[in-house]
Design goal:
1463 residues, 8 helices, mainly beta, 113 strands
């Protein structure tokens, strides 16, 4: 008895508990007070214990985390037991993790229970329950102790149900030779019909008719058992190997009771499994909807076996998991491009299909691949058609957990035209290189030999069973015969007469045996009964002679030789019975003791010793191939030679004292005869089946001698009688003639009842009675009661043993031919024929021939009939929807003795449940309630009376939505742009034709299903053209009919668009540089890209001393370059890196890992990062110069101004990697070149920054205008006062005329103080403005005087004196030379100069004596003698000597300057 743990409730007496809801499901909370104080709380679970199923002997524990203020106390208990034993239960608490643990080391089966965890404080308590299941080690389906306990509790029904036909190998009883394995029936009940032949061949069963009959009976019993626990058991799929290396089988059913236990067995032994622990256990049973899937991982050869799934004690599914080995494995194939490649192998056992893989992808029959299997299913081939270079790779064949693989190497066809495909080749490359047919034939012969051995064992077992059954049958016959004659034997026991020989007697029976030889009954003179019958003999079996009225039997034995009973003179019993193939004799006895030679099985000679003192001598019990005879007796003792099967001679011993001498009971192939009797005793040779001669013994006292009852192929005759009593040779089956004995008292002597094709004759009689022998009349086949159909002919026949006349009587009145009756005689056959039976023909018919007669009654009636209109109405189908009732009604004519039965698909329906049957005198109704789709079928009504039966059939059609399309979904084609799938129509269309199929698609990684469209019912395939190469898709298909949509058929695995061709590995990554925040990598592209363009790379990193590789970028975000800066690093940590190339199929093989790289800055001399070397600041503003640098170790920073230390008011701010120089309020005197100097142990670096402090320029001085040449005006001005202070100052000239009245800039970036205005026209007024401009902007303008009308015109001489001719031609001259420039690198630069000459000189620019007029890096202009050159961004190679050369016809002028580019 379990002691229940008591846990007291925390509420005080009279205290009320308030139920509260927990955030964790399954937790019950009771709060003791209605309102909690501020800051206080009742207990609650944040983590509750999880139910556990564990194997016996393992460590079991529950964990829980509780909260509450004040801190709750935790107590554990169980429903049916005590948890106070510290050796078995331990409660622990970890204050760091706040976990309460309840541990059970070495858990035992009796600890399986429901456990409770209570958490309490002063404000309430929280409680949760958890279940512990313990799987016993070595638990068997037929566990004896459990059954004993159940028997003790009188639960016999459960004990019987738990016994299984499949037991563990260790407990298997020694199997009899030829006995069928119980696995055979279990496999058949779970297999498809198409697999029956294979399973029968495997177990050596050839009698299919017997198998199917027994299987149907077993299925009905099993379905009745299953219906107690489950419903809708379907979709049984045998165990198979999956692509991921696991094995699984599945089935669908609904549990009637969700709490029913599900067990898994392997070879009869329970195996533990998990539902929640995932990969932590080898076996797993998971439920998906109605589907239960059993799977096991890490397959090993010992996993092969017989698996069963039971619900409670009833088996639901059985499957056999076999391991197949490869006798010949596939070999490497080298094929030319566009040639077919062949892989072939031979396996050890027939399999209809192997799993083929190419480059880790499963292969199916299609345009690309041919999968061939030989007729014996031992040779398997894979043909890769039209090989291309992309097909090369590793191909594998898998049979269970066994597999073999080999390379396919495809060589390019060098002879193919460039840019074109070569022609398709008709040759095949590859093969195993061995004679596969020879290997397969040898294996097939081996399997056939094993199968034939099993068949022989089964055949031998059946023959033994049949022989044993035949042995029991005559024993029963002999027993019944002995009972009938018991009274007669007792009555004549008082008579004591002298002995006479068996051959001198005339009356006797040759009994009821089956004989192909000779069986004769012993002689009788006293009216007793002598039988030679009943034995099966192919030789001679005879009963012993008797004088005293005792019974002598030679019958009943199986003998192929000679078996004889010993002689008796004292009334004792001598038997020669027994199974003997030799000689077995009983010893002689004179003292009344029994002597037995019988009953034994012997292959030699077995004889009983002679006895005179009444003791018992046995030679017995065995089967003998020699001679078995009963010993002689004189004192009334019992001598037996009997009971055995003998191939020799069996005869009954002689008796003189009324005792019983038997040669019987055995089956003999020799001669069986009844012993002679003179005293009215009973001599039997009977009861056996004999192939010899069986004759009835002679009788003189009117007693009954039988030779009947046996089946004989020899001669059986009835004994002669003198007192008018009947002598029978009947009842036996004989291949000769059987006749009844003659009588003198008018009584009937029958040889009848037996089946005889031979001869049976009666013996002679001495008392004046008629002896039946050879030609005397007798009835061999008499009349019996018959039924005749009204209007149909009827015939009655009587067969005589001789040709004699007879008369026919009906109800005592004689009959003659005429009036529809014909009486004919043909030799010894008499016939009465009624041509058309009527009611008046009914009556008692009797045939009389002399003193012989036989009679039988004829009854005329009608077979039931249906009205044609009613039959037509009933034959119309009844159509209903699922859930509706279906009713059938059939009228008929009322009749007596009429039985009405209803059938559905050949099975009779009984009233009850959902079936209601109503029987009225003139009609019958059938009502089927709440019809299901499975109720569809043939409905039949049968009317039956003694004269016959009539049937009418109709159809019940239950309409429902169709079943799901038949799978699996086949992939017909998959390319980079198209996926074509195919399926089969549903097995059940729901009673109405499917109209169309609806297809939906789901992309892998997404949860949304998208409808793609539908197809008509005639088409069971679909092409999806909207796919992306390399992506995987799942599909599901619905069938639709007018009743609705079916359940979906879904693809088992995702289908990828196109073939996955992954790139080879890139080169090993190299570490270019490292720092504490970044590691720079570079690598080389893969040498083999498999012919598919690479779209990028994926980089992975792994920290030192770890095994996990972390991707630095996603596959859909490839790195396009072959270098990458890894910034996700930790300073001081070491890393290694690897790279994978990504193409449209995904990421390929990873490269070898790089060398370890540490994320730290290397020792380096200081260097400056992107500094600015020129800075312009408005006077009065602050100056801030920022310089970033890199150096390791950190350098010492120094600032200089024009190579001198900076003034104290100039601030320097140094931070890590940066230095700043700050002038709070700048003046023009702060303009200078500032130098930063960084120095560490590795080296030092300098950098100059030019700081220009300036302001807006002052305006230029007065402007003067002068015309020296017609149409040109020279504009000059006084320089701005800031020109000397700012070398970047220049001038801008604007012009205004009276025509346009708009100011426009006519000159810019003038470094001179003059400008020549062109196209000055007379009569127009002009104004000029001159601006000074620097980096800060424009100055105010200086206004020129007005030019035009009469002002500043050159005076013309008017005195009439001719003026001298003036020439304006002059050689070139430089008015404004080039200036020296020192711009920073990357800045823009202007160079200008002014040139004068007439005619206008040609100006050329030179850099280091190289003309640059046509160089596009320089923008050169020449506007009215102002020559300018513009450089957008100054480069280092732009430094050097620049020279301007002006040349005309009168001479040449040039100027030069130097340009220095600063870093």
């Amino acid at each position: 008895m379990f002691k229940r743990t008591k846990v007291t409730d925390g509420t005080a007496t009279g205290q009320v508990g308030f139920r509260k809801k927990s955030k964790v499901p399954g937790v019950m909370i009771t709060q003791y007070i209605e309102k909690l104080p501020e800051g206080k709380s009742h207990p609650d679970f944040t983590r509750k214990p999880i139910a556990l199923t564990i194997q016996e002997g393992k460590f079991a524990f529950f964990k829980a985390i509780v909260t509450g203020d004040p801190k709750p106390t935790v107590v554990w208990s169980r429903n049916n037991g005590d948890v106070s034993d510290p050796a078995r239960y331990q409660s622990k608490y970890d204050p760091n993790s706040n976990e309460h643990t309840f541990e059970m080391p070495h858990v035992k089966p009796d600890q399986a229970d429901t456990y409770k965890c209570f958490a309490k404080n002063e404000y309430g308590q929280a409680m949760v329950t958890v279940v512990l299941n313990v799987i016993e080690v070595g638990f068997k389906m037929t566990k004896a102790p459990q059954q004993q306990a159940e028997v003790a509790n009188c639960n016999f029904k459960k004990v019987l149900k738990r016994r299984s036909k499949v037991v563990p190998k260790a407990e298997e009883p020694e199997k009899k030779e030829g006995e069928i394995d119980p696995k055979f029936w279990e496999l058949l009940m779970s297999a498809d019909k198409k697999d029956y032949e294979r399973i029968c061949a495997e177990f050596g069963v050839t009698d299919f008719r017997w198998m199917l009959k027994k299987l149907n009976e077993m299925k009905r019993e099993r379905e009745e058992e299953q219906a107690e626990f489950v419903k809708n058991l379907s979709d049984l799929k045998p165990i198979h190997i999956n692509a991921d290396g696991t094995a699984s089988f599945e089935l669908e059913f609904d549990l009637l009771d969700p709490s029913s236990s599900i067990y898994l067995y392997k070879d009869g032994e329970m195996i533990p499994y998990t539902k929640e622990l995932g990969d932590k256990m080898k076996h797993c049973l998971r439920k998906v909807g109605r589907k239960y899937i059993f799977s096991m991982r890490d397959l090993m050869p010992e996993d092969a076996g017989f698996y069963q799934l039971d619900v409670e004690d009833v088996n639901m599914f059985s499957t056999d998991f076999k391991m197949v080995d490869f006798l010949v494995k596939i070999q490497e194939v080298k094929a030319m491009e566009r040639e077919d490649a062949v892989f072939e192998c031979v396996i050890s056992a027939p399999l209809s299909k192997l799993m083929w893989f190419g480059k880790n992808m499963p292969l199916e029959q299609g345009d690309k691949y041919d999968i061939e299997v030989s007729e014996d299913k031992l040779i398997h081939r894979l043909v890769v058609k039209d090989c291309m270079v992309v097909d090369k790779g590793i191909y594998a064949a898998c049979a269970g957990i066994k597999s073999c693989n080999a390379w396919l190497v495809v060589e390019a066809d060098k002879g193919a035209p460039k840019g074109k495909k070569s022609a398709r080749k008709t040759t095949r490359a590859g093969g195993s290189g061995t004679d596969l047919q020879k290997v397969a034939q040898e294996q097939q012969q081996k399997l056939d030999k094993e199968r034939e051995e099993r068949k022989e064992k089964i055949k031998a077992a059946r023959e033994a069973a049949a022989e044993a059954a035949a042995a029991e049958e005559p024993e029963k016959t002999a027993d019944s015969g002995a009972g009938k004659d018991k009274g007669a034997a007792v009555e004549v026991e008082r008579i004591d007469k002298t002995s006479v020989a068996a051959t001198t007697t005339v009356a006797g029976d040759s009994g009821s045996g089956h004989s192909a030889g000779k069986a004769s009954g012993g002689a009788k003179q006293d009216g007793s009964h002598a039988d030679a019958g009943g034995g099966h003999s192919a030789g001679k079996a005879s009963g012993g002679a008797r004088k005293d009225g005792s019974i002598a039997d030679a019958g009943g034995g199986h003998s192929a030789g000679k078996a004889s009973g010993g002689a008796k003179q004292d009334g004792s019993h001598a038997d020669a019975g027994g199974h003997s193939a030799g000689k077995a004799s009983g010893g002689a006895k004179q003292d009344g003791s029994p002597a037995d030679a019988g009953g034994g099985h012997s292959a030699g000679k077995a004889s009983g010793g002679a006895k005179q003192d009444g003791s018992h001598a046995d030679a017995g019990g065995g089967h003998s191939a020699g001679k078995a005879s009963g010993g002689a007796k004189q004192d009334g003792s019992h001598a037996d030679a009997g009971g055995g099967h003998s191939a020799g001679k069996a005869s009954g011993g002689a008796k003189q004292d009324g005792s019983h001498a038997d040669a019987g009971g055995g089956h003999s192939a020799g001669k069986a005869s009844g012993g002679a009797k003179q005293d009215g005793s009973h001599a039997d040779a009977g009861g056996g089946h004999s192939a010899g001669k069986a004759s009835g013994g002679a009788k003189q006292d009117g007693s009954h001698a039988d030779a009947g009852g046996g089946h004989s192929a020899g001669k059986a005759s009835g004994g002669a009688k003198q007192d008018g009593s009947p002598a029978d040779a009947g009842g036996g089956h004989s291949a000769e003639e059987a006749s009844g004995g003659s009588r003198q008292d008018g009584s009937l002597a029958d040889a009848g009842g037996g089946h005889s094709a031979g001869k049976a004759s009666g013996g002679a009689k001495q008392d004046g009675s008629l002896a039946d022998a050879g030609g005397e009349p007798g009835i061999t086949s008499g009349l019996s009661d018959i039924l005749a159909t009204r209007g149909q002919p009827a015939e009655l026949t009587v067969k005589m043993n001789t040709d004699c006349d007879g008369a026919w009587f009906k109800d005592g009145e004689p009959l003659k031919s005429g009036g529809g009756i014909s009486i004919t005689k043909d030799a010894n056959i008499h016939k009465l024929t009624i041509h058309s039976c009527r009611d008046t023909d009914s009556g008692l018919l009797r045939f009389v021939s002399g003193d012989l007669s036989t009679e039988g009654r004829i009854t005329v009636g009608d077979v039931p009939e249906f009205d044609e209109d009613d039959l037509h109405k009933f034959s119309k189908p009844v159509i209903v929807r699922v859930g509706q009732n279906a009713a059938f009604k059939m009228p008929f004519q009322p009749q007596e003795s009429l039985t009405v039965s209803w059938f559905k698909d050949g099975t009779e329906l009984k009233d009850g449940g959902g079936v209601k049957i109503v029987r009225e005198p003139n009609h019958s109704r059938l009502l089927l309630r709440d019809c299901l789709r499975s109720d569809t079928g043939e409905i039949k009504i049968q009317l039956k009376n003694p004269f016959g039966a009539v049937e009418a059939t109709s159809q019940l059609i239950v309409l429902d939505r169709p079943g799901p399309p038949e799978g699996p979904v086949e992939t017909v084609e998959t390319t980079s742009s198209v996926i074509e799938i195919k399926w089969n129509p549903p097995k059940d269309d729901g009673g109405s034709a499917v109209t169309n199929y609806i297809i939906e698609r789901q992309e892998r990684g997404h949860s949304l299903w998208t409808k793609l469209g539908d197809v008509s019912a005639e088409k069971t395939s679909f092409r999806d053209r909207n796919v992306t190469h390399g992506k995987k898709y799942s599909y599901r298909i619905y069938a639709e009919n007018p009743q609705g949509l079916s359940d979906s058929l879904e693809t088992a695995d995702s289908i990828m668009a196109g073939i996955m061709i992954l790139s080879g590995p890139p080169g090993k990554p190299k570490v270019v540089s490292t720092s504490k925040t970044c590691i720079n990598l570079t690598w080389t592209p893969p040498e083999d890209d498999k012919g598919v363009p690479i779209i990028g790379y994926q980089v992975e990193k792994r920290k030192k001393d770890t095994n996990q590789w972390l991707a630095l970028n996603a596959i859909n975000e490839p790195i396009e370059d072959v270098n990458y800066a890894v910034k996700d690093v930790t300073e001081g940590a070491e890393y290694e890196f690897r790279v994978s190339a990504i193409n449209e199929s995904g990421a390929g093989d990873a490269s070898p890992p790089s060398a370890m790289a540490c994320a730290k800055n290397p020792n380096m001399r200081p260097c400056f990062k992107d500094p600015e070397d020129f800075l312009v600041v408005r006077a009065g503003n602050s100056v801030r110069v920022k310089i970033s640098y890199e150096a390791e170790p950190p350098p010492h920073i120094t600032w200089l101004k024009d190579d001198e230390p900076i003034a104290p008011w100039i601030n320097v701010i140094n931070t890590e990697g940066m230095s700043q120089l700050v002038i709070p309020s700048s003046k023009r005197s702060d303009s200078a070149i500032y130098t930063i100097k960084a120095k560490n142990s590795v080296g030092e670096a300098f950098f100059d920054v030019e700081v220009r402090v300036t302001d807006e320029p002052k305006c230029p001085g007065p402007v003067e205008l002068e015309q020296t040449v017609y149409g040109k005006v020279a504009v000059s001005w006084v320089p701005s006062p800031d020109q000397e202070l700012d070398d970047r100052l220049y001038y801008v000239v604007s012009q205004h005329d009276s025509n346009t009245r708009m100011w426009k800039t006519v000159a810019d970036r003038l470094f001179a103080n003059t400008y020549t205005a062109h196209n000055i026209l007379p009569g127009i007024e002009y104004h000029f403005r001159v601006y000074a401009k620097n980096d800060m902007g424009l100055s105010d303008p200086s206004q020129s005087p007005t030019w035009g009308a009469n002002s500043n015109r050159v005076p013309i001489s008017s005195n009439g004196v001719s003026s001298m001719e003036i020439s304006f031609e002059r050689p070139p001259s430089i008015l404004v030379p080039l200036k020296v420039h020192t711009p920073p690198k990357g800045y823009q630069l202007y160079m200008t100069c002014a040139v004068r000459g007439c005619p206008t000189p040609n100006v050329s620019w030179y850099l280091n004596n190289t003309c640059i007029n046509s160089d596009k890096n320089y923008y050169i202009t020449n506007s009215c003698g102002v020559c300018s050159m513009y450089i957008l961004r100054v480069r280092e190679n732009d430094g050097g000597e620049y020279r301007v050369v002006a040349v005309n016809s009168l001479g040449k002028a040039e100027c030069s300057t130097k340009l220095t580019v600063r870093d």
